[in-house]
Amino acid sequence: MYKVHCLNNISEKGLALLSSDYELTDDVSDADVILVRSANIHDMEFSDKLKAVARAGAGVNNIPLEALAERGVPVFNTPGANANAVKELVLCALLLAARDVVGGAAWCRENAGDENIAKSAEKAKKQFAGTEILGKTLGVIGLGAIGRLVIPAAEALGMKTVGYDPFLDADRAASISPNLRFTDDLLDLCASCDYITIHVPATPSTKGMIGEAEIAAMKDGAAFLNFSRDTLVDNTAMRAGLESGKVRRYVTDFATPEVMAMEGALVLPHLGASTAEAEENCAEMAVREVMDYLETGTKTHCVNMK
Length: 306
Known about the structure:
The structure is a single chain. By secondary structure, the chain is α/β, with parallel strands linked by helices. It is 35% helix and 16% strand. The strands form two sheets. It has a seven-stranded parallel sheet with strand order 8-7-6-9-10-11-12, sandwiched between helices. Helix 3 (83-98) crosses helix 6. The two termini are 26 Å apart.
């Protein structure tokens, strides 16, 4: 009998896949398997019983990969399971960056007691006017599970697209969309796009990859969307870009003290994968990966061991 401990709320739809050979336990020290979403387990002490860890999501920066590998414990993730949820929020963010919907809604709430609010709104609305995304160019940094969904969706809304990914070439990128312009130069992408969205993992090599040089290369008034990881963007450089007007809007899914102090940043509370469907998809994939490993030795989407 394998015992499974959930460090975060894991969708019941995923847990329902566990066979009679598995049971849930509230005692992490007695667990053979740990299922986790966002909990940081870098400082956790692991039992010698632990056989596998599965992250119901793609990012694994909250898990000590090397330490677990040294103990012979594989870590699995679920790439692509929440990609559609993130894609849809990126499309929302494009519109929020283009038009001050948030500011306009806040104005209406703040003036809720005005008996003549309809008339007042007609006078106030010009301060919330924006632009359209039709005909604008979207740059997509990272053409993995999410980026390759964002591109055709943006094109369907009438946008032009430019893609960058150091792990792809032009031929492989063309399979995403025949209309995509692929570039192997990040600064070229920055210089040619009205909107830019980033979808790469958080690693030592990607930390601060959007910095002073990249922001300086951007079009005046560009909008930058970050639904990947907060560490990808140099906060000092982004703040300077917003203050100078070089960056018109920074829409990020990661609330940090530094970002909250930025005028012009629209910050969301890590909603990217927060849909019922995404949570179910991730839970189901994570459970299947763990069961396959324990029962057959198969390592699907193992991120710390071969």
